# Entry
Amino acid sequence: MSQKKIRWNIIFEDDDILVIDKPAGWLSIPDRYDPEKQNLVSSILQYREEIFVVHRLDRDTSGLILFAKNESAHKILNEQFLERKVIKTYIAFVDGIVSEEKFEVNAPIQLSQLGRVKIQKTGKESLTEFVCVKHWTQFSKVICKPKTGRLHQIRIHLQHTGHPLMIDPMYGKRKAFFISSIKRKKFNLKKDTVERPLVSRQTLHASELEFKHPTSGEMVRFEAPVPKDLRALEKQLDKWGGV
# Structure
């Protein structure tokens, strides 16, 4: 089966590691209650004899995810994640104009209910660094560097700043983004047609991973291109979103 058909791409592979560009909509691992749901691990195991999970991405987050191919590599990579030696970079499109160019959120996170998290003093230490690289009249583009690896960390920290992800049904304001929301005066639909959303998933992409290779010990860096839907979003914001 071609990689185009399976819809995930191999960014890099050797005897020890497998770096995948995960599409939005794919679970990282099998669902506990419904293992038939589309997920990376089950799909990869159709083509590889063994794979070890090192970290995860939310289903509706796209981008880089790292797997180990043997127990030794798995142990070394896990240690790097636990010791916060892995450099993770995400691209996010968020609500509102972010006024500070560089800022950080140091706010403890606690598991709430139904897979949600909340900021709580008794939660686990959680730190994310942010850099605003672009903004429009209603939205901003932000680079996110989580220094810890808590569940939904970037999403809840952005909500905590008042700038949740542009699309995030759990922590944000909307489930989808429509061109008509920024192109009001010049937007016309053909008769008997319904507007389709431009983007209907979390506006978050895991763009870069940097870590020590488990065998060579050398620092390696991988990058996943921004997917088509987020490129289209930025293009339309540039055209109609104002400055």
